[in-house]
Amino acid sequence: MTPGLLTSGLAAGLGGVVGVILGLVGRGGSILAVPLLTYVIGVASPHVAIGTSALAVLVSAAGNLVPQWRAWNVNWRCAAAFSVAGVLGALAGSVAAQAVDG
């Protein structure tokens, strides 16, 4: 196996673990993904690990949304308010993170 293939397999396996935990408890994906990407996978820049985990968690969360939506378990008004506040908080956090050395 080549190092790239091994790293990709490890990343896929750990991403699956993060997805299962995200599906079980509905949160915590980035808290788990960033350290795994940084310390286990070897992503050198914490900023790249944060951006990578954000996309991975977005896709995992979207996958979890579909069955919850079909089961009528989504309060859309609350989700919209929470999402807007979350996006604003994420933007503020990303600006603050850029000011800090990785």
Structure write-up:
It is a single chain. The chain has four helices and no strands. With 102 residues, the chain is mostly helical. The protein has a domain at 3-73. The N and C termini lie far apart (31 Å). Belongs to the 4-toluene sulfonate uptake permease (TSUP) (TC 2.A.102) family. This is Probable membrane transporter protein.
Task: Compile the SSE list and pairings.
Blueprint: H1 3-25, H2 29-41, H3 46-70, H4 76-98
Helix pairs in contact: 1-2, 1-3, 2-3
Unreliable stretches (pLDDT < 50, length at least 5) are: none
Proportion of residues in extended strands:
under 5%
Shape: flat
Q: Rg to the nearest angstrom?
A: 15 Å
Number of helices: 4
Biggest sheet, open or closed, and with what strands and sense? none
The N- and C-terminal alpha carbons lie at a distance of 31 Å
The secondary structure category is: mainly alpha
Order of helices and strands: HHHH
Characterize this entry briefly.
The protein is an all-alpha fold and 102 residues long.
Q: What attributes characterize this protein structure?
A:
single chain; 102 residues; mainly alpha; 4 helices; 82% helix; flat
